Amino acid sequence: MTDKPAETAVTPQADGHEDGAPDESVRDVFARLYADGRAYAAAEADKQKARAGLIGAGVRDAAIFAVVAIMLIFATLVALLIGLIIALSPQLGPLWATFAVLGASLLVTTGLLLMAKARISRMKKAITP
After folding, report:
1. Distance of alpha carbon 7 from alpha carbon 15, whole angstroms
2. How far apart are CA 58 and CA 45, in angstroms?
3. Helices 26-87 and 93-127, interaxial angle, to 10°?
4. pTM for this structure?
5. How far is 64 from 82, CA to CA, in rounded Å?
6. Which of 3, 18, 101, 104 is the most buried (most CB within 10 A)?
7. What average pLDDT does this structure show over 118-127?
8. Is 23 within 8 Å of 99 (Cβ atoms)?
9. Across residues 51-73, what is the average pLDDT?
C-alpha cells in the first residue's frame, strides 16, 4: 500500500468561477432577469389579447346568427298563422303555399342555427390549449 492520499475527482476553485464562465455581476444578472420578465409579461399580454379577440369575434358571429334565426322563427310563425287563415277559405291552394313558406323558413332557420353552432365549436377548439 501507499502512504499517499487518494486524488479527488473534482477540485473546487478557490475564486468560485469556472473556467470559461463570463464575468457577470449580480446587477447584470438582475437586469437581464428584469428584462426577460418584462418580455415574458408583454408576450403573455399579447397572447391574452389575441385570445380575447378570438372569443369576442366568435361570440359576436354566433349571436348574429342566433338572432337572425330567432327572427326567422317568428316570421315563420306569422306566415303559418296567415297561411292557416287563408287555408280556411274554401280553396286548397293557400294551404300548400303556407306549407312551402313554412318549410323554406325552417330550412333557413336550421341552416343559420347550425352555422352558429359551428362557429362556437370552432371558437372553443381554437382557444383550447
Report:
1. 21
2. 20
3. 170
4. 0.47
5. 27
6. 101
7. 90
8. no
9. 92
